[in-house]
Amino acid sequence: MKKYIKEYITAFLIFIITAWLGIFQPFYALDHMASDMVYQRASAINKKIKIIKIDEKTMSVYGPTTEWSRDLPAQLVETLCQSEDTKPAVLAFDVMYIGEKDAEGDARFAKACKDAGNVVLAANIVYKTSVDRYVDGVTFVNNRSIEQIEIPYSALAEGATTAFANTVQDKDGYIRQAQLFVETPDRTMDSLAFACYKAYQNQNNASIEIPRLDALNQTEFTFSGNIEDYEDVSMCDVLEGNIDPRVFKDCIVLVGAYAPGLMDSFNVAVEKGSQMYGVEVHANIIEALLEGKFSQPANSVLTGLIFACAAVVFYLWIRKKNIIISLVSLFVFIAGEIGIGVLLRVNGWTIPVIYLPIILILILVYKIFSQYLIEKINRTRTLNAFKKYVAPQIVEELSKKNNLEIRLGGENRNIAVLFVDIRGFTTMSESLEPEQVVEILNRYLSLTTKAIFDNSGTLDKFVGDATMAVFNAPFDLDDYIFKAVCAAYDIAAGADEIEAEMMERFGKTVGFGVGVNCGPAVVGNIGCDVRMDYTAIGDTVNTAARLEANAKRGQILISDEVYQAVKDRVEVEPIGEIPLKGKTKGVMVYSVKKVEGKPKVLDTKS
User: Fold this and answer.
1) 354 secondary structure, DSSP code
2) Residue 147: CB atoms within 10 Å
3) CA-CA distance, 45 to 225, in Å (whole number)?
4) Beta-bridge mates of residue 145
5) Distance CA 21, CA 27 (A)
6) How far apart are CA 307 and CA 292, in angstroms?
C-alpha cells in the first residue's frame, strides 16, 4: 500500500508541475527556438513574388540612396507599368519617401504612381510606451502605443496606397509574427504585406482571408523562403534595360534595401545565424497570406492539462518497464507530440515544443536513478546480509563481479559441513551469572566465526552454544574440503587462549568438540513465505553433527570421505569404525592431529 501511495503522490506531482509549465510557459525564448527548428522550415516559394534590389551594384551606378532624386523610383514605376504586357499586379516600395526633396523628381514620382494605380508605399509607425485600459477598466502598460505615423509626402500619398512597413520582433529579437493592420481613431492602416496581398487578390478577383489575430492584430506566420530564396534582380539592371519588364507582369513586385549598409536586416526564425532583409520578410508574409500559413497559440490551460495527462500516462507506463522499452516509449511520446504539433500548425494553432519532452526526460531520469538507487540499497543489504554468513573477502569478490544471485529453493551441491559445540557449557552456565554466560558464549562464537570466515566458509547458523558452517555453498569454493578441516583446526587451536582467559576470570574452563564431513546435500532457502533460512540438509549434514557429538573436548573428528580428500596434507589418528546415531552401519573416523601449513599446537584432551 505504501508503494502505491508513493506512486500516486509522484504522479500527482508530475501532473501539477507539467500543467504549470504548459500553462505559464516560463521558458519563452528556449521554446520558440525549438519551435522554429520544428515548424519553421522553408518550402517551395511563390514565383509570382519578385524582389527588385537596391543593392551595392545599384548604388555603384547611381550613388548613395540619400543622394538619389525621386526621378529614379519614378523611372522604375514607368518602366514596369508602361503597358498591360509589363504591369505587375502590385508594385510595393519598402522605402521611406517622407518629405519633399526636389520638386521635379517629386512631381514625376507622384504622377507615375498615380498613373500606375497599383503602387503601395511604405509608412513608418512611431511607437511609445503608455498606460492604457482594457474595456473592463483594467490598466496595463502598452509598449506599442502609436505616437505618430510617418507617411510619404502628400502629393505621392494621394496617388498610391500607403501601408506601414514596420516589422514585429518577438521577445527574443526574432521575427516570426506579423501585424496585419493597426487601428487609430482616424483610420485603419494595413501593413505593407497585407496591402500587397489585398491588391493581388483584388486583381485576381479572389477572396481575402484574414487569419485569427490577437489583440494587437498580430499572428505568427511560417516562412516559405530562406535568405535570397525569392527571385531578385538589381534595380539598375531594370532601369538600364538589362531585364525584360514583361517578367514582372501580374506579379507582386517588392522594391527594397538589399545591402548591409542600408540597415534594413533582421534576425528571423527560419534561418538562425544570418539576417534577412526587410523586403524578404515582407515577401514571406505575403506568401503566408496567400497560402494561409498562420497560427495562434492554443489555449494554454487546455494545453497544460493535456501535457500533464500525457506525462502521467508516460510515468505509469514506464514504471515497470526496462530501460530499452522506456527509451523507445520516450521517443514515441516526443514524436507523437511533434506530429500533433505539426498537424495543429497546419490548422492554425501552435503548442509549446519543449515542456512535455523536458518532463518526459526528467521522468525517465527519475526512473533510472530511483531504480539504480533501489538496486544499490538492495545490493548493499544483500552484501551486508552475506557478510553475516560468508567470509567478507568472498563478498567483496562477488561484489566486484556483480554476482549476487542465489537460487531460490534448494539445489544439490557437494559440500563440506562443520559442526562445533562447547563441551561443559550447560554445567558452567548453572554456576555463573547470565551476563557472564553470555560474555563467554560470545567470546567462543566470535572465535568460531573468525575461523570459518578466514577459511572462506559460510556460517550457516548458531544453535545455542553450537555453530554450523558449510563450505562450497552458496558459491563455488576451491579446495573446500581442506578449507573446512583448516577451519576446524583453527577453532581448536584458538580454544587454548580462550580457555586460559576464562579460567583466570571466572575459574571455569570449557573446550570444543568439532566434526567435519563432506558429500552431497540439498542447499538453499528452506522454510516458508514468512520465514526462510539459508541452510543445508541431508545425510552429509547429519553425519557431521554426529561426528561433533562424539568428539571429545579439543578433538576434531573427520569422516573417511574427508580423510581421503585431504590425507596428503594432514596427520591423523585413526579412531576406527564407530556407530553413529541414526545410521545402520558404523562410520570410519579419524582424529586430526596436524594440518599442513598450521602450527602444531593441537593436543587432544581427554
Assistant:
1) S
2) 10
3) 6
4) 128
5) 9
6) 27
**Of 141, 132, 176, 129, whose CA–CA distance to 28 is shortest?**
176
DSSP state of 71: H
CB of 578 closer than 8 Å to CB of 587 = yes
* Cell numbers found for residue 89: 499586379
Within a 10 A sphere around the Cβ of 294, how many other Cβ atoms? 23
Cell of 571: 596427520
Burial class (CB in 10 A: 0-12, 13-18, 19+), 489: buried
Phi, psi of 518 (to 5 degrees): -140, 160
Residue 297 and residue 349 in contact, taking contact as beta carbons nearer than 8 Å:
yes
Angle at 106 between CA 105 and CA 111, to 5 degrees: 100
Q: Where does the pLDDT of residue 136 fall: very low under 50, low under 70, confident under 90, or very high at 90 and above?
A: low
Burial of 382 (0-12, 13-18, 19+ CB in 10 A): middle
Collect all residues with Cβ–Cβ distance below 8 Å to 25 and sequence separation of at least 6: 31, 300, 352, 355
Distance CA 533, CA 524 (A): 8
CA atoms within 13 A on the CB side of 410: 15
Bridge-based pairing of strands 587-595 and 570-578 is antiparallel
| Assigned C-alpha cell, 24 | 505559464
When mean pLDDT is compared over 107-111, 379-383, 388-392, 476-480, the highest value belongs to 107-111
Q: Which three cell numbers stand for residue 458?
A: 559460510
Q: What is the pLDDT of residues 405-464, one digit of tens each?
A: 554 467 899 999 999 998 877 777 777 888 888 888 888 889 999 999 999 998 888 888
Which pLDDT tens digit goes with each residue over 143-185?
A: 778 889 999 999 999 999 999 999 999 988 999 999 999 988 7
Point out which residues pair with 226 in neighbouring strands: none
Cα angle, residue 554 at apex, residues 551 and 557 outer, rounded to 5°? 40
DSSP string, 286-312: HHHHHHT-EEEEPPHHHHHHHHHHHHH
- DSSP string computed for 24-40: H---HHHHHHHHHHHH-
Grid-cell match 538492495, residue found: 378
The residue length of the chain stands at: 606
The per-residue pLDDT for 606 is 42
Residue 536's beta-bridge partner residues? 523
| Residues in contact with 513: Cβ distance below 8 Å, sequence separation at least 6, in sequence order | 420, 421, 423, 548, 549, 550, 551, 552, 553, 554, 555, 557
In eight-state DSSP terms, residue 261 is G
pLDDT at 174: 94
Cβ–Cβ under 8 Å, residues 328 and 336: no
Q: Cβ neighbours of residue 298 under 8 Å, at least 6 residues apart?
A: 344, 349, 350, 351
Question: Minimal CA–CA distance to 295: which of 357, 353, 228?
Answer: 353
